[in-house]
Amino acid sequence: MTKLKHGRHTSAKKEERKTARRTGRNKELKEKIKSAAKLLRKSVEKKDIEKSKSALKEACSLIDKAVKNNIMHKNAAAHKKSGIARLINTLSAKP
């Protein structure tokens, strides 16, 4: 154990390390969600229905994982999922 300055407890140092680790994990998952949504939007713009549906499935899966791990609130996740699903619906509704 290292020598600590006055007023810094070992438990506080450990909690700081844990927070940094968790923050990194949370940011990584949020970035994956954003990139999946971006990929979905690009495939919708290209009017590629099959690629869009697979991207929607991937994005919804990532969003559900974020909710399960308390990274995202369930209502925020529902809002995001309905928004990206709406993109797919506009694509399939157009002839």
Summarize the structure in short.
It is built from three helices and no strands. It has 95 residues and is mostly helical. Helix 1 (10-45) runs parallel beside helix 3 (74-93) and helix 2 (49-68) runs antiparallel to helix 3 (74-93).
Helix content: over 70%
Low-pLDDT parts are: none
Task: Give the CATH superfamily.
Answer: Ribosomal protein S20
User: What CATH first level would be assigned?
Assistant: Mainly Alpha
Kindly provide the radius of gyration, computed on alpha-carbon positions and rounded to a whole number of angstroms.
20 Å
Biggest sheet architecture: none
The helix count comes to: 3
Instruction: Write down the domain tally.
Output: 1
Indicate the overall shape: elongated
Oligomer: single chain
The helix/strand series, from N terminus to C terminus, equals HHH
Architecture in CATH?
Answer: Up-down Bundle
Distance between the termini: 68 Å
Q: What do the pLDDT scores average to?
A: 90
- Enter the CATH topology name: Methane Monooxygenase Hydroxylase, Chain G, domain 1
Helix/strand/pairing class, anyone?
Answer: mainly alpha
Give the key terms.
95 residues, Methane Monooxygenase Hydroxylase, Chain G, domain 1, 3 helices, elongated
Structure characterization notes:
The chain is mostly helical. The protein has one domain (10-93): Methane Monooxygenase Hydroxylase, Chain G, domain 1 (Up-down Bundle), CATH 1.20.58.110. The chain has 3 helices and no strands. The chain has helices spanning 10-45, 49-68, 74-93. The radius of gyration is 20 Å and the shape is elongated. The N and C termini lie far apart (68 Å). 15% of the residues are buried. The model has no long low-confidence stretch (mean pLDDT 90).
